[in-house]
Amino acid sequence: MRLRKDERVKQFRSVKGEIQKISAEIAGRSTYEDSTRKITIDDNDLSNKKLEEYQNELHRLHDEKVHFVYQIGNNVFFLVNMHVFYLSDSFGFSIMLSFIVLSHKNERLQKVDIYICAIRDLSATLGTEASMIITKIHPSLNDLYGISKNISDDILKKLNGTVVSLEEEKHKRLEKLHHLGRALSNLWDLMDASYEGRQKFFHVIDLLSSAPSDVCAPGSITLDIIQQAEAEVKRLDQLKASRIKELFIKKQKELEDTCNMSHMETPSTEMGNITNLVDSGLTNCNFLQLLRVFVIHVKLIAEFCPLF
What we know:
By secondary structure, the protein is mostly helical.
């Protein structure tokens, strides 16, 4: 049983070793640099499924290597036709291959740099620490460590996934701020909020007309901004009931005065029903707006249909 397990481990180690070797060749790392990397095998997972995953990865890398070599061949043919190098000159051929490998490596480095730049921009907008996010993907991506960047397919995949995740978080936060902005606007209108009271959250209101692609300024949609807006909405909601009652009493008095001046009978039944709603707390912005319309309606009747 022990021998079978050892053989299985050797099989896994062989496949992972090939994966590591080809990855290094494609990335432009030296054989020595690659050999210093320890091949680790999880003894607790030696299943056929896991082995198949490694073999599929190895096949994919083989295909990528073939494509890479094919590109080299095309470049060699081009350079020969341009008479830049004599292929009989082994030194010139080595220089040419080195140049092509370096070009391939530079292309990957450019992709890595583009991803890192996107992560930094998104992190600044969200108010998160870009350095920690980048280091978590791989320490070599952080310039502070002073080591060569890892530009493997796995790293490129992780970088892409991180950018997608940050974009999703950006959309999620902006959607939440849109909801909070609409709530604030409605509450301000209801409460007749002062300019000073609104000013602190003008940034949230400005975001109502913004699409995710428009929001890129540093600190635009931080968690602090969301929490402050949530707290303000909660505070105004708590004041709303008492404010509505206060406004209702004011409008009720206005209605009674209008009816008295016009010798009209105050609609006591309707006002009694509304009073019960106010006392029970079953009120909202629409209710108050209807009450305002009702007062205006009574005023119009008094103005155009006076009783003598």
